[in-house]
Recover the amino acids of this structure.
């Protein structure tokens, strides 16, 4: 994009923010995005629609509007689900616009101290792993039950955060290399992320077991860090870019051609960051969601899948559906399990509200959107709910607990690996 297409001579931009005006100009305000925008559907407010927010961001970038709390709240209420991108006849890259708009706001309204602490923690995965160990003790010692009964969580205003906490799995093994079993097919790297190391180590461990059983060496790149999704969501463009650079360097140093992601939110951000990689095409590392990677991988002769005659509801994370455009890979993978009945959760094109830090940042809207999903699950009554993104899983699982609905929430990969057996003669 030429420099003339970027507003860099305005007061906000003078402090480091840049806004892609040329991209915003592609929006013709046709309104075809409105029925696909979750927040507009709930509020009926034009300011909570994609075209309304584009207009607000243009006014902010031009200096016609200040970064007031009211304007910032309209941008904050956006989920960043990018459902509007999928239906836009002009091909407007709304995800790029909302990130740039939030960065403009950030130049005039610094993030709250609690947000800054959270972002700093996400960029320190090793520290998050240590916090995970403390939380495991909190759960397994019985302390969690006592703290919940005491009312302390409500007094400290962390009740909602604690409710999102799943039963923490054992710590992920620390080795950097996991050799292939049987005939070696190739070598891949596994992206761990930040929060997933503590909260979703079971899925990471399942990915390692599955990939090695399928004949792939698995490398866990050293010095990898957070994907930067939370920083981008908070309008912290420069820290997000630094994280992306650190990850690219870690991936290249691992000596692989493919990096596998298990959380679609991370995968979408890493894939997008890779578009700005100035490395030569020959040396550029590909980022693939694990469901995409496994699509063409046949099981070795020694392995088979056992039947699973139950109904599984599949929730499409927005990052997988609208970011990676790879939601069908989940159905293809789970469809290989004999006797399984897969059902796409109703209104899968609409966000569940579990977008990054959204359940903490916008709890009322997050709960409204989740209520629709819970109603669909109540009607369907599946045995299992499969979702390929950690944020969605945490948000939906917490909602199911509050409604006393006994539906297990699992990553599709965990389901697939659970059914894998050694073939008997």
């Amino acid at each position: 994009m030429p420099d003339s297409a970027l507003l860099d001579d305005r007061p906000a931009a003078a402090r480091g923010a840049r806004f892609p005006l040329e991209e915003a100009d592609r929006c013709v305000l046709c309104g075809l995005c409105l029925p696909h925008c979750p927040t507009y559907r709930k509020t009926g407010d034009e300011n909570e629609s994609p075209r309304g927010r584009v207009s607000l961001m243009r006014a902010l970038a031009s200096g016609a509007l200040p970064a007031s709390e009211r304007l910032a709240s309209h941008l904050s209420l956006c989920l960043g689900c990018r459902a509007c991108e999928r239906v836009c006849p002009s091909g407007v890259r709304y995800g790029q616009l909302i990130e740039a708009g939030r960065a403009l706001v950030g130049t005039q309204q610094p993030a709250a101290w609690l947000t800054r602490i959270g972002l700093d923690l996400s960029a320190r995965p090793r520290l998050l792993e240590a916090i995970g160990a403390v939380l495991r003790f909190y759960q397994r010692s019985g302390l969690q039950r006592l703290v919940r009964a005491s009312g302390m969580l409500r007094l400290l205003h962390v009740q909602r955060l604690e409710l999102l906490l799943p039963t923490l799995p054992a710590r992920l093994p620390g080795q950097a290399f996991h050799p292939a079993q049987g005939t070696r097919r190739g070598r891949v790297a596994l992206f761990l992320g930040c929060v997933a190391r503590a909260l979703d180590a079971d899925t990471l461990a399942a990915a390692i077991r599955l990939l090695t059983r399928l004949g792939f060496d698995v490398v866990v790149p050293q010095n990898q860090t957070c994907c930067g999704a939370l920083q981008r969501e908070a309008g912290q463009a420069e820290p997000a870019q630094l994280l992306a650079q650190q990850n690219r360097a870690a991936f290249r140093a691992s000596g692989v051609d493919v990096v596998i992601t298990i959380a679609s939110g991370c995968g979408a951000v890493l894939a997008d960051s890779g578009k700005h990689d100035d490395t030569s095409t020959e040396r550029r590392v590909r980022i693939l969601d694990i469901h995409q990677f496994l699509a063409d991988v046949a099981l070795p002769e020694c392995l088979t899948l056992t039947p699973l005659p139950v109904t599984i509801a599949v929730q499409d994370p927005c990052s997988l559906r609208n970011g990676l455009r790879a939601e069908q890979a989940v159905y293809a993978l789970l469809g290989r399990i004999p006797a399984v009945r897969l059902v796409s959760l109703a209104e899968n094109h609409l966000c569940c509200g579990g977008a990054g830090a959204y359940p903490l940042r916008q709890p009322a809207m997050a709960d409204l959107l989740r209520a629709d999903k819970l109603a669909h699950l109540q009607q369907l009554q599946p045995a299992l709910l499969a979702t390929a993104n950690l944020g969605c899983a945490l948000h939906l699982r917490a909602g199911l607990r509050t409604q006393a609905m006994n539906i297990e929430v699992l990553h599709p990969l965990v389901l697939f690996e659970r059914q894998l057996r050694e073939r008997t003669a």
Q: What stands out?
A: The first strand starts at residue 6 and ends at 7.
